[in-house]
Amino acid sequence: MQEMIKVLIASEPCDKRNMLEDALEKQGNIEVCSIAENGAQLMDAYRRYRPQVVVARMMLSGMDGMAAARAIRKLSGGDKTFVVVTSPFYSDSLSAE
Questions:
Q1: What residues are paired with 57 via a beta bridge?
Q2: How is residue 27 annotated by DSSP?
Q3: Environment class of 17 (CB within 10 Å of its CB; exposed 0-12, middle 13-18, buried 19+)
Q4: How many CB atoms lie within 10 A of CB 43?
Q5: What is the pTM of this model?
Q6: Phi, psi dihedrals of residue 83, rounded to the nearest 5°
């Protein structure tokens, strides 16, 4: 049996978030361990579940997705977490660090 990959989703409630959650869980080896609606919830859920993958919207209240990615990297084990920051906008200046 494959090891489950834990994924944390951080986004405001919307159809796209629900579609992402459904698509990930249909893969069979992916568990959406938590859904956060703002930056504080994202960080709390990260500390609690220690997911291997975080999918966060660029625009979250309290702490945007890029700030959350930086904060996760500073935590113990955070350098092993794959963080995907999504945005409806594209800019080379928003490239991952």
A1: 86
A2: T
A3: middle
A4: 19
A5: 0.86
A6: -110, 125
**Per-residue pLDDT of the chain in tens (97 residues, 90 and over written 9):** 678 999 999 998 888 888 999 999 999 999 999 999 999 999 999 999 999 999 999 988 999 889 999 999 999 888 899 999 988 765 554 444 4
DSSP-based three-state secondary structure for 87: coil
pLDDT score for 97: 46
Q: What is the largest CA-CA distance in the chain?
A: 41
CA 97 centroid distance within chain:
16
Query: To the nearest 10°, the Cα dihedral for 78, 30, 1, 73?
Result: 0
- Give the span between the Cα atoms of 25 and 17, in whole angstroms: 12
CA distance 68 to 83: 9
How many angstroms separate the CA atoms of 56 and 35, rounded? 10
Q: Which amino acid is at 41?
A: Q
